[in-house]
């Protein structure tokens, strides 16, 4: 199978996105309450609420501010731009690693095919939300690919809003000063034998079976972050990835050819 890649200027794509977002946001600002009520509400509506109304966060200790704030128009456009680009690029990367793992593990590719047949997914029209959601093995497969190939781990940085002291797993204490920026080493965490077992570097979707993961630390799997700022598109990205894989497997088989060199 041959892949053709059409290269485009990143600046050009950014400019096109910016024009589209400006147009949509302008339409939303000018629509009536009746027009808004007739259409599906989306994430842009959530951002628009933060633009129109004062966001009262004075009773939330987790926020490092006591000043009610609403988004400016530029912040609204910038936020929607960030969500659009971040969701597309990181999901595409996850899909790529899933296809790589399918090619490297033909026996798992066969299991995915068998599961799609069990759920009567035989053509494009059968790919809907419920069918994709019910593909449990494929979901474990995607989660395992995200574990071994975390793509967006640099966005999990956090800044301490107060000085604190934490007890580490070996019993020693770690002091963190207020204002210190902390970035968890996710690629190391996701391959730590103390967390994932002796086969931590091997690809095994069944490690996400309930009986194999019920005692696992909730912060062991962090491809989408965690806490208040966990990726809002986590479930969407997983379902998009599953749907794309199913769509491709309806027509193609992925395998490693002799020309491929894998490190």
From TrEMBL:
PROSITE patterns: CYTOCHROME_P450
GO MF term set: heme binding; iron ion binding; monooxygenase activity; oxidoreductase activity, acting on paired donors, with incorporation or reduction of molecular oxygen
Cofactor(s) needed: heme
Cross-referenced SUPFAM superfamilies: Cytochrome P450 (SSF48264)
Keyword Ubl conjugation: no
Any one GO CC term of the record: endoplasmic reticulum membrane
Pfam family, one: p450
Residues reported to bind heme: 231
Keyword terms: Heme, Iron, Metal-binding, Monooxygenase, Oxidoreductase
InterPro entries membership: Cyt_P450, Cyt_P450_CS, Cyt_P450_E_grp-IV, Cyt_P450_sf, Cytochrome_P450_Monoox
Family: Belongs to the cytochrome P450 family.
Function: May be involved in the metabolism of insect hormones and in the breakdown of synthetic insecticides.
Protein name per the record: Cytochrome P450
Organism encoding this protein: Panagrolaimus davidi
